[in-house]
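JOB MANIFEST
job_type = single_chain_structure
chain_count = 1
residues = 389
[input]
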Amino acid sequence: MIDFKEMNSRYKTELLENVLPFWLGKSQDKEYGGYYTCLERDGKVYDTDKFIWLQGREVWLFSMLYNKVEKRREWLDCAIQGGEFLKKYGHDGDYNWYFSVTREGRPIIDPYNIFSYTFASMAFGQLSLATGNSEYAEIAKKTFDKILSKRDCPKGKWTKAHAGTRDLKDFALPMILCNLSLEIEPLLDKDFMDRTIGECIHEVMDVFLRPELGGIIVENVTKDGGLSDSFEGRLVNPGHDIEAMWFIMDLGVRLHRPDLIERAKETTLRMIDYGWDKEYGGIYYFLDRDGHPQQQLEWDQKLWWVHIETLISTLKGYKLTGDKRCLEWFEKVDEYVWSHFKDEKYPEWYGYLNRRGEVLLPLKGGKWKGCFHVPRGLYQVWKMLETFK
């Protein structure tokens, strides 16, 4: 029998006494503003480049905690200083958000990555709620408009694909829009918001989710919604799919649609079973829908974010539907996460394991891992566990 009280205390304590103090103390650049994300196991900075999507994620995280957990001044100060750095240096003056900048804020990589935009919009949306600053709200809205204008070609002139040969659209953007639309809903017109949500749900649940493949989700489809027999077209990312399903569950709650929640819950269970490594445990990073060799050499690694998002989706599925299969998977993944990703000596969690569950990289942050999935997951699970007896 699961001890919800003990588990709730474990997640809350890990967030408030371990993970958040790590990022507050180690990541803030007190001289130039913004955050360091390239942090060694003990938190020592090993590279000072600043990646805009990770800057946005940290602004969002501390703004969200200030808004929803406690009005701690240190959380708000952390968010504001990061937001000011982003406002000054993160874009080209027209809210085209760079991928990375130097420590001082000079552009390194141009605005090719749509996730610089999505997390900037999320960041300024939450920061505007925390501060009441209308300028932050306007940045969030203008950036959201930019995102929608790029839906047909997210990378714009920086795309590497040759037009007209194999034109694909990927799952990542409609997936993240399901979450982003709820994040900045208070800032948007209701009719526009409802239309955008409807389009995103359709894309995720009726285009990328494929009944003819047994109900799995593929990462890329053709522009007209067909399957592509190519590396990209056969690619499955179980972590993306599982994460997307808790976004869909949240939309189901928002829209009062138990049918949508049920579909998302069933898809969550299906994708965990599909992606679970039956020999070593944990969830694969990438798979090929036809079982062919993957082009990604890291396909069998076990990544932090995949498993943390699975904790959220399974517990949310159980909370909303009472399906005990969700709780069984939650317990199984909980055991794997705490025995493999938690560092018993230093704060924050490991990010990269090999297939056998051994630590590949001892870093706590880098180009892709920052202050986001671990604290967001701990927060989400803690708050759901509080509701159980």
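[summary]
The first helix runs from residue 4 to 26.
Residues 238 and 272 are 7 Å apart (CA to CA).
exit_status = 0
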